[in-house]
Write a structure and sequence with these properties.
This protein is mainly alpha-helical. Helix content is about 60%, strand content about 5%.
Length: about 170
């Protein structure tokens, strides 16, 4: 009879733990959904993402564009999952945006910003580091010497994952 009571008590405790675990998992699932939704919203607008999650990067970009003192080249790095390419595209948009904000940063909505985002801007070229073979590097060098088509003095090149490029190609670009 004592064994029966112990079994009932353990079963009640087990059921209580199971209910708590189910509630916790359900709550965590809802929280996870909220986080994913927030991440999706933020990633759809790079400026907001940088402002909210990458304060220092945003401040550097803001100061650089506000003072109109951008460099001729940038190296953007970060841990896996960081919006490195999105940041580079946002910088490109900020160079050619038609409706810049008070900090001279891109609106991300005008025709030029959309062209950059969709790789349709004539003076914007994007390459992957692993596709930088000798012939591609030579064509990039030829492009350097041509005049800009859409915007005077603004030609933009992004090389994503440049660490994957062959050393010989990198040396030719330098």
């Amino acid at each position: 009879r004592l064994l029966y009571y112990l079994k009932v008590i353990f079963q009640e405790k087990y059921d209580e733990i199971e209910r708590s675990y189910t509630a916790l998992v359900s709550k965590d699932y809802e929280t996870l959904k909220d986080i994913k939704l927030l991440k999706t919203k933020l990633m759809n607008n790079t400026k907001n993402y940088l402002k909210e999650k990458q304060h220092i990067v945003f401040q550097v970009l803001k100061n650089s564009f506000k003072r109109e003192k951008t460099s001729h080249a940038y190296i953007i790095s970060g841990s896996k999952g960081s919006p490195i390419l999105d940041t580079a595209i946002f910088m490109a948009q900020s160079l050619v945006c038609l409706n810049k904000d008070e900090n001279n940063l891109a609106c991300e909505e005008c025709i030029n910003c959309q062209k950059i985002k969709n790789n349709g801007y004539a003076d914007f070229k994007m390459f992957s580091g692993d596709q930088l073979k000798t012939d591609v590097t030579l064509s990039i060098q030829e492009e350097f010497n041509k005049s800009a088509i859409e915007n005077e003095n603004v030609k933009i090149y992004i090389i994503d994952q440049i660490e994957k490029a062959p050393v010989a190609s990198l040396n030719k670009l330098v």
